[in-house]
Amino acid sequence: MKKTIISILVMVLLISTLIVTGCKKDEAADDTAKTVSEEPVKVVLYLNGTLGDKSFFDSASDGIKKAGTELGIKAKVIEGGYDASRWEPDLTQLCEGDWDIIVAGTWQTQEILEKLAPLNPDKKFFTYDTSVSYDKGGLDNVYSILYLQNEASFLVGALGAMITTSDMPQANAKKSIGFLGGMDIDVINDFKIGYVEGAAYIDPAVDVKVAYAGAWNDPAKGKELTLAFFDQGADISFNVAGETGLGGLDAAKERNKYTFGVDSDQYALYAVSDPKKAANIVTSMLKNVGASLYRGIKMHQEGTLVYGQAEFLGIAEGGVGIAKNENYTKLVPADFQKKIEEIEIKILNKEIKVSTAF
Fold it and tell me: What is d(CA 221, CA 244) in angstroms, rounded to the nearest whole number?
């Protein structure tokens, strides 16, 4: 009898142990599931400027928003404005938040990131259109994106040279094209070098008129300088000046002259809202900032993004190009389009090596 009771007690104890162990395993499984299904990556884009330029900052914002929609990240865009004294305090405050990736671009935020990134090793940082100085150390958590804007600007310059020597309806007898830069800095001069070399590739006699506005948010200045190009005989102008460049598009509309957009497909942006302005935008030199940020976030999610280095994105990587939209097809003669495609292939094959300002 005693043996039977003892046997029953042992069985009850064994069953209780199995139940407890099973519960613990279930709890462990739940913990594992929680680890696997982590919270969405939190990404904030800080603009050292404002939205509305229909080119550079708008492109960056579109890329972050697209990542929010398609990649399931938590995305936010903050406009820091053009007061440089705000940028470091704002970015410092963002570092104190729960953001996983903090994105801030242009050469004007480079030193700020070089200061903040080493102080916040638990954060990841993206910068674009510039690179931090990795030799300073402590920047293994920063990913820099640079663009080979000189490559695509070469295509635009070549097209401009063909247009100015053509019998297209808005071209005159003078071999002259214009270049409007926001500021006299390396990244803008990288556009200019490609543009000038592209024009010379077609016809060394083409005169490239150059002016710098000295500001990114002064459309009136951009219009004034572009009108001066046209007054001096230029057939077409290339605006590389952010919001200031929108004034260049206004000048082309007013004088019924050809123009090149920049960064985004500016024809597409105006095709509905201002078709007369859009009609003069032959093409745009695309600097695919938004696409590059989207790409970087996706690679971060996949665990394939390498931090602590800069990456150059050119025509081959889809970082730059030109907009071959309906207006391009309509305005540009077929033989010109074919020539641009030939030049593009030569750049990809390294048969044409475009100089750089860097």
Answer: 7
For 149-287+324-348, CATH gives 3.40.50.2300
Query: Residues with Cβ < 8 Å from 78, sequence gap 6 or more?
Result: 44, 45, 46, 47, 90, 94
Cβ atoms of 178 and 192 closer than 8 Å: no
Digit-coded pLDDT (tens) for 227-269: 999 999 999 999 999 999 999 999 999 999 999 999 999 999 9
Side chain identity at residue 310, one-letter code? A
312 in Cβ contact with 305 (< 8 Å): no
pLDDT digits (tens, 9 = 90+) for 125-171: 999 999 999 999 999 999 999 999 999 999 999 999 999 999 999 99
pTM to 2 decimal places: 0.83
Residue extent(s) of CATH 3.40.50.2300 domains in the chain: 42-147, 149-287+324-348
Q: Would you call 281 helix, strand, or coil by DSSP?
A: strand
Task: Please state, in angstroms and rounded to a whole number, the distance separating the CA atoms of residues 342 and 25.
Answer: 64
Does the domain made of 42-147 have the CATH classification 3.40.50.2300?
yes
> For the residues of 150-168, what is the DSSP string, one character each?
HHHHHHHHHHHHHHHTS--
Q: Which two tokens stand for residue 350?
A: 């390294």
Residues 6 or more apart whose Cβ sits within 8 Å of residue 43: 64, 67, 68, 73, 74, 75, 76, 99, 100, 101, 103, 297
